[in-house]
Design brief:
Layout: E1 9-14, E2 17-22, H1 25-29, H2 39-51, H3 59-66, E3 77-80, E4 84-88, H4 89-108, E5 122-125, H5 140-165, E6 169-172, H6 179-187, E7 191-196, E8 199-204, E9 206-209, E10 223-226, H7 229-236, E11 241-244, E12 248-254, H8 263-277, E13 283-287, H9 296-304, H10 306-309, E14 313-315, H11 320-328, H12 333-345, E15 361-366, E16 373-375, E17 383-385, H13 389-400, H14 404-409, E18 454-459, H15 462-465, H16 468-484, E19 493-496, H17 501-509, H18 513-518, H19 540-549, E20 554-557, E21 573-576, H20 579-588, E22 601-602, E23 608-609, H21 611-614, H22 618-628, H23 631-637, H24 646-649, E24 691-695, H25 702-705, H26 716-723, H27 741-746, E25 765-768, E26 773-776, H28 777-787, E27 791-794, H29 806-809
Parallel strand pairs: 4-5, 4-9, 5-6, 9-10, 12-13, 12-15, 13-14, 18-19, 18-20, 20-21, 24-27
Antiparallel strand pairs: 1-2, 3-11, 7-8, 16-17, 22-23, 25-26
Helix pairs in contact: 2-3, 4-7, 8-9, 11-12, 16-20, 16-22
Length: 810
């Protein structure tokens, strides 16, 4: 119950229901003007008013936020309490493991383990584990789903237990969708309702998530961003997130997109612009007359890439377009009415009469200036105008070529590059054999492959597959290409991995799916796939040609990140682009072309076919959307979203309030944090006669501290797994084994690029003192532990920077 120091508690009636709300204009009545506040800060202000307790949230902090000065440097700390927590499976498993360990501790202390539950609603979507093993065939989806379950059965059984064992924990099973698209289309409320006996409270839907692209839901007017696992666990248990009152950068949008430009072109333009300006650690807020012609799906695409342009969030206000989208996606009329009424009552609803807020910095963008673009070959902010694609690749080629000798000494394929470093993992290298997987590429492709050949073309990622206009555009382009007689070259690994089952429904309804399939863009899964590095292996003949000819080949994808090595270890040039352009470059088979002038191929009539010949008009796209997408599709798709398929429902699940830990499990182990725990915590002891375990320099990132990639067989973690019967081919990655502390402790400081000044050797090594013996950091720590010797780490500036990672903190 809020202390209500500003008498903000009031009642709002919508329909036949009464809601308790905390009015923002109560501060104006108290003599503190809030009319100048940006939309995002108004949401934070309501959060403080509602959670004021005199401890975490004090009256003075509310007053400081309400009186925010746009030109002041952030120096005031506030406590933000999100409405809910969003997880994906890689980062979510350790959170659920910790909850299960807490239940064991509660039982050991004589308490009731069933009392341990998330206090805030938690939603976990399993989307990070499916890989593109099979592609270009009608059974690709079934095969990839089968392999996914074989690889992850142990993890999934544990999560299935969590789904049934914890209150306030909802799990969306695998092969359903991508977390951010499911959040946008179904989970997000915009206005949250908390019901308790005799009371119904309405307030803005807010969240934190364990995935950096949690910001996608900002496009719906929902404030949230990505955090590390420990912060997420704290939020799950009702603890607020401590933060400085941020600077807010306003981006004024004017005009409308020109013919031929897409939402992807727009977000790549914004990413380039904001990276150059500098918005790291700041809120970004979009406003202006350009919002009138900007569909919500386009807004979500822009919000999704907030991490790429460096912002904490990239939020849009609630307006008529928000209501239109909620209606399209099957939200109830009662909920839509509440969103509108609450938004207008609290000054959170944007229309032409809304006064312009004050911002710390102000930028503007004319949407009409956006032109067809892509980004690459290594960074999302490196935008390339479509007509300069060939020139850009040619210029970058010398820096992408690596001598064969250097390549031979590089890390194994599964270890190259950060993969989905931010989310905590890399491709599973488990040895699941199937003779039918990717055997449809003849040896003759070797002669056709050259520098610049496109070997991966993926319509992937929530960034774009949540946007019907670019998906329909890709389908229409495929239709026209097939009608012209064009085909995708044999060396291109193609895939379609939408973030929602609704995408397949409307592509089928529009009659476009058969044309995509004729170009080998078959459905491969509902999950992150190529965008996070789960592109699967290249066909053997393609891989051989790349190795033997030392080729710099390319991938084209509709994702949000293209860091070196992320998409596939054999592909050095990676370009982000819209789904229609993915199809176009797949047809061309090369990245070093100017699609304005160079033909995509030769039609069945023997004449060259150009991009302009098959590019769909905005009117064509809009007409298909109007006739092919219905709210009933969303309602049907999400009617049983938590149920899962027969494989999920058939998993063997332990019964009981505490988890039955498998002694021989190498994926899920009970964490020891609560062993020997007393009801009252032990006092913090002094550190005396400590030894230095490592002397590190500046900019030691969380990936140096707790790597997320593959596990070397001669590393402490690799030896542990082999001792427990796991073959090196089945190691998987540190990311996938984050539910096993034995692996993760052995993986601490195991990054092959770590530089410890106590030794000359690069990697996770140190010198044990006083013996001076060189050994792994883990082995040395065990020796010190046996002697009862405390340990310290010496490090320079920016220690622990980089992506949020709970195991680095642990």
């Amino acid at each position: 119950m809020s202390l209500n120091s500003f008498n903000s508690r009031a009642s709002l009636k919508v329909g036949n229901k009464e809601y308790e709300i905390y009015r923002l204009d109560a501060l104006d009545k108290a003599g503190i003007s809030t009319q100048h506040l940006p939309f995002s800060l108004r949401i934070l202000l309501e959060n403080l008013l509602r959670t004021e307790d005199g401890g975490n949230v004090k009256k003075e902090e509310i007053r400081a936020l309400a009186a925010w000065n746009s030109q002041s440097k952030p120096d005031k700390e506030i406590a933000f309490t999100p409405s809910r927590v969003l997880l994906q499976d890689f980062t979510g498993v350790p959170c659920v493991v910790d909850l299960a360990a807490m239940r064991d501790a509660m039982k050991q202390l004589g308490g009731d383990p069933s009392l341990i539950n998330p206090l805030q609603p938690v939603e976990l979507v399993i989307d990070h584990s499916v890989q593109v093993d099979e592609f270009g065939t009608a059974n690709a989806f079934d095969m990839n789903a089968l392999l996914e379950f074989q690889r992850n059965k142990e993890r999934y059984s544990f999560l299935r237990w969590g789904q049934t064992g914890f209150r306030n924990l909802a799990i969306v099973p695998p092969d359903t969708g991508i977390v951010h698209q499911v959040n946008l289309e179904y989970l997000a409320r915009v206005v949250f309702i908390h019901e308790s006996p005799g009371k119904r409270v309405a307030y803005p839907d807010t969240l934190v998530g364990t995935d950096s692209h949690t910001t996608m839901v900002n496009g719906l007017g929902v404030l949230g961003w990505g955090v590390g696992g420990i912060e997420a666990e704290a939020a799950m248990l009702g603890q607020p997130v401590s933060m400085l009152i941020p600077l807010v950068v306003g981006v004024k949008l004017t005009g409308r997109l020109r013919e031929g430009a897409t939402a992807t072109d727009l977000v790549l333009t914004i990413t380039e612009m904001l990276r150059k300006h500098g918005v790291v650690g700041k809120f970004v807020e979009y406003f202006g007359p350009g919002l009138r012609d900007l569909p919500l799906a386009d807004r979500a695409t822009i919000a999704n890439m907030s991490p790429e342009y460096g912002a904490t969030c990239g939020i849009f206000p609630i307006d008529k377009e928000t209501l239109k989208y909620l209606r399209l996606t099957g939200r109830s009329e009662e909920q839509i009415a509440l969103v509108e009424a609450y938004g207008r009552e609290q000054g959170l609803f944007h229309d032409d009469k809304t006064p312009e807020a004050q911002y710390s910095e102000l930028l503007s963008l004319d949407l009409a200036s956006v032109e067809p673009s892509m980004a690459g070959p290594k960074r999302p902010q490196d935008r390339v105008v479509l007509s300069q694609a060939g020139e850009s690749f040619t210029k970058a080629l010398p820096s992408l070529i690596k001598p064969k000798a250097a390549a031979k000494t590089a890390a194994p394929a599964a270890a190259n590059g950060p993969r989905w470093e931010q989310e905590g993992g890399s491709p599973a290298a488990i040895g699941v054999e199937d003779p039918n997987v990717h055997e449809h590429v003849p040896a003759s492709v070797k002669d056709s492959l050259k520098h610049g050949s496109v070997v991966i073309a993926a319509i992937t990622s929530c960034t774009n597959t949540s946007n019907p206009s670019v998906l329909i555009g890709a389908g229409l382009l495929a239709k026209k290409a097939v009608e012209k007689g064009l085909q995708v070259p044999l060396w291109v690994k193609t895939s379609l991995a939408p973030g929602s089952k609704v995408v397949r429904d409307y592509l089928d309804h529009a009659g476009l799916m058969p044309y995509l399939e004729k170009l080998k863009f078959h459905l491969v899964g509902y999950g992150c796939t190529t965008c996070i590095g789960n592109s699967g292996p290249l066909p053997e003949e393609v891989s051989k040609a790349i190795d033997e000819k030392e080729l710099v080949v390319a991938s084209v994808l509709s994702g949000n990140r293209n860091f070196e090595g992320r998409i596939n270890s054999e592909v050095r040039a990676n370009y982000l682009m819209s789904p229609p352009l993915v199809v176009a470059f797949a047809l061309a088979g090369r990245i070093d072309v100017d699609l304005r002038k160079d033909p995509l191929g030769t039609g069945r009539d023997g004449k060259p076919v150009y991009l302009a010949d098959i590019w769909p008009t905005s009117r064509e796209v809009e007409d298909v959307m109007q006739h092919s997408i219905t709210s009933e599709m969303f309602s049907k798709s999400y009617a049983e979203v938590f149920e899962g398929d027969e494989r999920w429902r058939g998993l063997s699940v332990p019964k009981g309030q505490t988890y039955v830990w498998e002694k021989d499990s190498t994926y899920i182990r009970r964490a020891p944090y609560f062993d020997d725990m007393a009801v009252k915590p032990w006092p913090v002891g002094e550190i005396k006669k400590a030894r230095v375990l490592a002397v590190l320099g500046d900019s030691v990132t969380t990936d140096h501290i707790s790597p997320a990639g593959s596990i070397k067989k001669d590393s402490p973690a690799g030896k542990y797994l082999q001792e427990h019967g796991v073959k090196p081919a089945d190691f998987n990655s540190y990311g996938s084994r984050r539910g096993n502390h034995e692996v993760m402790v052995r993986g601490t400081f195991a990054n092959v690029r770590l530089r410890n000044k106590l030794v000359q050797t690069e990697g996770g090594f140190t010198r044990h003192l006083p013996t001076n013996a060189e050994m792994s950091i883990f082995d040395a720590s065990e020796k010190y532990h046996a002697d009862g010797t405390p340990l310290i780490i010496l490090a320079g500036k920016e220690y622990g920077s980089g992506s949020s990672r709970d195991w680095a903190a642990k």
